Amino acid sequence: MIIMNHIMKLADTEKKYYNPMSLTAADKIVPQIHLAQLVKSLSPESGAPQRIIVMAPDYMKSLKTILSETPTKILHIHLLWKQIQAFGSFIEADAVHPLKQLSNELQGKVKLPTRFREDLHC
Prior knowledge:
- By secondary structure, this protein is mainly alpha-helical.
- Helix content is 63%, strand content 5%.
- It contains seven helices and two strands, in the order H-E-H-H-E-H-H-H-H.
- A two-stranded antiparallel ribbon has the order 1-2.
- The radius of gyration is 22 Å and the shape is elongated.
- The termini are far apart.
């Protein structure tokens, strides 16, 4: 009986912290991102996992709402901005110089010139 109680506690802990679920169930939480298709495309030829760990199921439910209520153009702009943020520091071009300055300012490394402060309302 003691062993069974311990096993049950471990199972509850697993559900509480790891949120394991089938790939199909996770895919249904946010159908807009096609999670099952994404996981399968990144999996080895031997096959995709049948179960995955969903670290933040509440976030995924919120994401479903956000994606359904946000205009496509805004989502595209957001994703483009995230790409610029992610790769801007690796690009040696004058076009990304303002981004590098902004990043430095936000990290407290240097002050932005006055014209950028006015544009950003700093």
